[in-house]
Design goal:
192 residues, alpha+beta, four-stranded mixed sheet, 3 helices, 24% strand, elongated
Length: 192
């Protein structure tokens, strides 16, 4: 009887320890939308970058732990001020005069669970070429230029976070519970 109790206690402690370690790793907040959107192709320079996350972020003193860069192809950072954290959103202003080309947005925030999480995504900027031809009237210009979908359609940005998804953790919990029940049934049958 002592052996069964010891085995059950050991399995229970191992299960609780495994779930306690795995749960915080998977609880990081994830990015759900961005403006400009990931992989978007803009025709006008954005005034700011806005990232929205799956939960309210922790805002530490002077937003320490929160950072964002918007780097062009030459390596210049176009962020013009500190990040502002408001609930589940981080916003940074961008400098004027951004040239056409590819941009990489990198970010780091403090998740609601207290752990830092980070990621990156890209967008591109294609500026209209200045021509030496006589300028068209505004109505001709509007009719000739195709309109791009709004950048507020905000597709989720890619996240470089190694967190495990909740369904996987639940599945692992079910497997562990089944193993515990099986061990108990086997131990009871041996006792008879």
């Amino acid at each position: 009887m002592f052996r069964i109790r010891t085995t059950i206690a050991a399995v229970a402690v191992a299960t609780v320890a495994a779930l306690a370690v795995a749960a915080p790793a998977s609880a990081h907040d994830t990015i759900v939308s961005s403006t400009p959107a990931a992989d978007s192709q803009l025709t006008a320079a954005p005034a700011e970058v806005v990232l929205t996350f799956s939960n309210t972020l922790l805002s530490l003193d002077e937003n320490s732990g929160t950072a964002m860069t918007v780097i062009d192809e030459s390596g210049e950072d176009w962020v013009a001020g500190p990040p502002v954290v408001a609930a589940d959103t981080v916003t940074v202003p961008l400098a004027e005069g951004m040239p056409g080309g590819a941009y990489t947005v990198t970010w780091q925030v403090v998740s609601s669970d207290g752990h830092p999480t980070s990621g990156e995504y890209g967008f591109s900027l294609t500026l209209p070429e200045a021509s030496a031809e006589p300028s068209a009237t505004p109505s001709e210009t509007a009719a000739a230029e195709p309109t791009d979908p709004p950048s507020d359609a905000a597709q989720p940005a890619q996240q470089s976070d190694d967190s495990m998804p909740w369904p996987l953790l639940i599945g692992l919990g079910v497997v562990l519970l089944a193993a515990i029940v099986t061990a108990i049934v086997i131990a009871v049958r041996r006792k008879r």
